[in-house]
Amino acid sequence: MHSIKFILLLSVFTGLLLPHKIEAQTTQTTKQDSTKFVSIAKKNIVPVTLIGLGILTNNTDFEKHLQTDLRNKVGNEYELKIDNYLQYVPAIELVTADLLGIKAKNHWFDQTKYLLISQLISSSITHSLKMITDKERPNGSPFAFPSGHTTFAFTNAGVLYREFEKSSPVLAYSGYAFATTTGVFRMINNKHWASDVLVGAGIGIITTELVYHFEPLKNFNPFAKSKNLTLFPQVGNDSFNIYFAYHF
User: Fold this and answer.
1) How far is residue 184's CA from residue 179's CA, in Å, rounded to a whole number?
2) What's the rounded Cα separation, in Å, for the pair 70 and 100?
């Protein structure tokens, strides 16, 4: 059974990399295309590594011992639900930065558009894997692999990073700090194994990188000329809301 699960995971992992293989075949035509391929490949080294490590450590004695040691250090009854809130912080930072007028890569509507597309793709991958693997959580609950909270947090962090990496590096990287803390507390709270968190983080990052590389619906922006209106989403486990803010 474990071998079958591993093959399924490896298939998904390969599928995530497929766009790069397709692009690799076409980049031989021009030097410009080759440069673009090298650029996107470099940006995806980290998420690919995270996913690979997650697959390799999944259901191993190593991650089981790691989880046991972690819980023994904090106490088997310990639970701090801060991870339920930290996952939203990068998205809140994104909206706050827009409201404060910090220079971003894209218009606020395009930011929201790419955030929603990234979340749709990453959450679909994560929830599909949960159903396929049906891995038990450390606390005995089902559907551990990968971590949905971690995927959500790193997807938010990825959008924040891509929008402010040039204009405000500290702000751009801060999202990953909150996302990492989210993943760590999923383990501390005994909700996820290390592999769940690693793959969740990788999916969140690589999805965002691919969305920003291909820029779906690039020319769709009905608010391109509006500077006073800001729209931002809030996605929860059981709800989806869109809020508007107007600058007077």
Assistant:
1) 9
2) 40
DSSP code for 136: P
Could you give the C-alpha distances from 212 to 49, 72, 141, 168, 235, in angstroms and in order?
20, 41, 35, 18, 20
Q: What is the pLDDT of residues 50-61, one digit of tens each?
A: 999 999 999 999
Element (DSSP H or E) covering residue 128: helix 108-133
Six-digit token string for 20:
């790069």
Question: What is the domain range of residue 80?
Answer: 46-246
**Whole-prediction pTM value?**
0.79
Amino acid letter for position 183: G
Asked whether residue 27 is assigned to any structural domain, the reply reads no
- Domain contains 222: yes
**Both tokens of residue 68?**
């046991």
The structural domain count of the chain equals 1
Other beta carbons less than 10 A from residue 223's beta carbon: 15
pLDDT at 235 over 70: no
- CATH (domain of 144): 1.20.144
What would you report as the CA-atom Rg of the chain, rounded to the nearest whole angstrom?
19
Classify residue 29: in a domain, yes or no. no
